[in-house]
Amino acid sequence: MKTAMHCDSHVHIVGPTDRYPQVADRTYLADVATLKQLESVSATRAVRRFVIVQPSFYGTDNSLLMESLVTLAGRGRGVAVVDPRATSARTLSGMAEQGVRGLRLNLYSPLREKARLAERFVAIAGLARELNWHIEIVAPLKMINQNAELFRTSSVPVIIDHYGLYLGVMPDEPEGAALLKLLAMPHIWIKLSAPYRVSANPLATRPDPAWHAAILAVAPDRCVWGSDWPHTPPHEKQMGSAVLAPYRSLRYETLVDDFIATTGSAELAERILSDNPARLYEFE
User: Fold this and answer.
1) 224: which strand partners?
2) Quick one: pLDDT at residue 237?
3) Exposed / middle / buried, residue 59 (Cβ in 10 Å: 0-12, 13-18, 19+)
4) pTM given for the model
5) Distance from the Cα of residue 29 to its chain's centroid
6) Is the pLDDT of residue 163 over 50?
7) Where are the beta strands (DSSP E) in 109-240?
8) Closest CA to 107 of 136, 65, 139, 132
9) Taking the alpha carbons of 272, 274, 276, 280 in that order, is the dihedral positive or negative?
10) H helices within 202-264, ranges in order?
């Protein structure tokens, strides 16, 4: 019997700026965070599979993501960002062969125009449908709920980042209940990742017990765990495109251990760490 392989379903890899330039309108200068460093910090918790998510500061240049997938040689999957009007079918096919399984739509910026959301979603949904990919959404809870019908009627799976970014809302409140209703849909998944993004504590490693339990009650087979390594600095620490902002100082082992402890059931935690991501990302 083979031992299950744990998967970190949300990480970012960052290279030196002379080789991998960051977009001009970024809000901070991201420091180097290599695949080798990631594998080193995750080794003590038997995490051997990784889903590399394209960070906003690389725009649609997925070069480093694709190089990292080659290095991982089957142990990696990718979530890319593309311009649907400028990316050829051949390029997308090549990305699929290397392990890309989803497209990311970043709606977290307050500057995004709500009127354009449906158009942007539909445009990449067409690509995702052809490739049997999913769409990954990073957006605050209010925006998720405002567009719930769009996600509910999606013809491709939708993965919601970071607990739905519910900051300040409880699961038994109307906005929380609306997210849970959406998560009951069979094609909606959620990443149980980055508890510090939904906490008043910027270094929080333990998931909120009420939210964690509520999500597991409605979607235990559509949850995946992610560390959010190397832990993007809080917005108030992002001081401009020329200023190097330090990542949050967190222990990888603590994030894993606190997730398992909050889940309570070792069997369920194993499912979320191994079985669920294997299905979603098509690991062998």
Assistant:
1) 191
2) 74
3) middle
4) 0.94
5) 20
6) yes
7) 134-138, 158-160, 188-193, 223-226
8) 139
9) positive
10) 209-218, 252-263
* Cα–Cα dist 81/61, whole Å: 8
pLDDT tens digits, one per residue of 180-224: 999 999 999 999 999 999 999 999 999 999 999 999 999 999 999
Query: What is the number of other CB atoms lying within 10 angstroms of the CB of residue 248?
Result: 18
The answer to whether 176 and 212 are in contact (CB under 8 A) is no
User: Are the C-beta atoms of 39 and 68 separated by less than 8 Å?
Assistant: no
Q: What is the pLDDT of residues 230-252, one digit of tens each?
A: 998 777 777 677 777 888 999 99
| DSSP state for residue 271 in the 8-state scheme | I
Q: What is the DSSP string of 43-107?
A: GGGTEEEEEEE--GGGTT--HHHHHHHHHHTTSEEEEE---TTT--HHHHHHHHHHTEEEEEEE-
3-state secondary structure of 17: coil
Whether 113 has a pLDDT exceeding 60, the answer reads: no
> What does the block give as tokens for 21?
């330039």
